[in-house]
Amino acid sequence: MALAGITAGVAAADPLAELDDAQARAQYAFYTADERALEAIANTIEQLEVPTSLATIRLYGAAYARWKLAQLYLGGVGKGEPRGRRNESIKAAQACQVHVAAALSMDSRMSEAYVLDTACAMVLNGQRGSDNGSGNSSGKGKVPPACARNKSLRMALELAPQNPRALLFEAICLRPASTAASTAAVDRLRKVVAAFEAAPPSRPGVPDWGHAEALLLLGENYLQRGESHAARDAIEKALVIAPDYRRAHDLLDKVDTRPQ
User: Which member of 34, 180, 211, 232 has the lowest number of beta carbons within 10 Å of its beta carbon?
Assistant: First the structure.
């Protein structure tokens, strides 16, 4: 039974499978920048009835969908864009944090929830996070404010030091604002990619997002350093994982048009 066919208040026949399918759909909708589909998925997850044992997973899935939706909204903000897009991104990020707080009230040691809390805080600070680099607006050489003040990332790293998603946001937070990526920033991102590669195979109910985003961010950092061949390699690896990743295709086009 397709997730989109589940009506509000009706329990899923296999709720864990439905939740896993929902996160996969949310990832795909984000990669293809399909706001309408992602909005529908977020609404469905929020209305899905699940056993108590899966309540935290459902809340996590709802938070993830709202975070990715907030990123899409924020990505549309710019000159000539309606102010409402920023307002929509704020509302989505706030909804993400509400779901995260509810999940942590049930399981205060859920490291993945702390990672999402960090991600949503970055959106509220005007940063898109793992999609396109740090998005730092705090000034040259400074750590992004949302990272500097965020306790959730520290908790995520304390609870699961090798969690590749936590390591990804740590790398984003430690990257200073500048026109060219530093060697240290590239090295950190290479370690993050290695952590994703070393992670065990995904299991039902366990988050598995972030690998393609880490590779894209690494490619972007390489490109900022003028290392076009390394950038292409990282971006193409991201596209192996997520062939329809629109931002990866856009960045690959930049590599192709940059003088060698």
Answer: 180
